[in-house]
Design brief:
The chain is mainly α and 73 residues long. The chain has one domain (11-72). The chain has 3 helices and 2 strands; from the N terminus they run H-H-H-E-E. A two-stranded antiparallel ribbon has the order 1-2. The longest helix is centred in the N-terminal third of the chain and has 12 residues, at 11-22. The radius of gyration is 12 Å and the shape is globular. The two termini are 21 Å apart.
Length: 73
């Protein structure tokens, strides 16, 4: 979580960095639950990652695909 006084990155930047850092080639994305993304997002922003990722997908910034146990980002 960002310390008080520190500027947080945007939700989109957080998602993009998480995908780049956590994905395992040859996969192009990450599993929202098994990668730890949901937990890290909640800790950093204190909000529900599902709503945010759905909104970003509707805006065309990311793609989500339902899979067993969650979604692929």
């Amino acid at each position: 979580m960002a310390k008080s006084g520190e500027k947080k990155i945007s939700e989109y930047e957080f998602v993009a960095k998480a995908i780049k850092k956590l994905r395992n080639p040859p996969y192009k994305g990450i599993h929202s639950v098994y990668s730890g993304f949901n937990r890290a997002f909640k800790e950093y922003f204190g909000t529900n990652p599902v709503e945010t990722t759905q909104r970003l997908a509707e805006e065309g910034k990311i793609t989500i695909r339902p899979v067993r146990g969650g979604v692929m980002l």
